[in-house]
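Folding follows sequence. Below is one example:
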Amino acid sequence: MKKISLITFLFSFIYINAQETSVEKSIFSVQTGFLGIWINNESKLTNNFALRSEIGLDSGIWGGDLYDGTAFLLTPVLTIEPRYYYNLDKRKNNGKNISKNNGNFISLKTSYHPDWFIISNKDVNIISDISFIPTWGIKRNIISTNFNYELGFGIGYQYIFYKSDGYSKNESDVGVNLHLRVGYTF
């Protein structure tokens, strides 16, 4: 009987310790920042990889000597972003919260700005573009609630579809992703 109890204890101990740290299966959130509002979903691909899909409105503000006044605009953006959460095990081992994918990540943020509509206080035209930006970031809950913040930074590649607006050729440029967002996870 002692052998059976000992074996049962060892197997249950091994089973409990063998459970791996993992990203959430699927989470939805709404986020806002200084330059927009977004709705997103993160779906689990593997224990440390999640695929973030997002739709939102990016905004812009400009003005100066070349413009009559200051202008503001909102334009749609579609984003797909595979994320690798690289420090979940370390956070869990240190007793830190990893729920709702709290952790540090690296990703490849791929965003497309279609020419569907523009909300602006001036008559402006937006030219469609696509960008591929490797990004480093962090995501944390605020005081263990459904509220969260996220920040990230990356430099990558942007391709602008000028031909669709009548120009002679399309162009590529350096793309930058610098974001600070707060949001709510459902």
